[in-house]
Write a structure and sequence with these properties.
Number of strands: 0
Order of helices and strands: HHHH
Largest sheet: none
Radius of gyration: 12 Å
Structural class: mainly alpha
Amino acid sequence: MKGNFPFKQLSHDMTYLLGPVASIVLEDVIELMHINKENMSKSMLPALIDLITNQIDDPVKQVEFQKRIYPKVKPLIFQ
């Protein structure tokens, strides 16, 4: 994948919904998946998004997160 694009976008959208705790959640999920931000396989992106979604307690915010992020990363997933 190209650099940190998906992680910057994930962090931005998570922060919009979760506030300052978003960066901690993202780092925890990345660590859990043993992902290297610089050369993560694009095939892992849906699993990463699902794990992040599961860390969001509010079901409305879960849906909002997926509505915000999937259109932005869809081109990466289906290249």
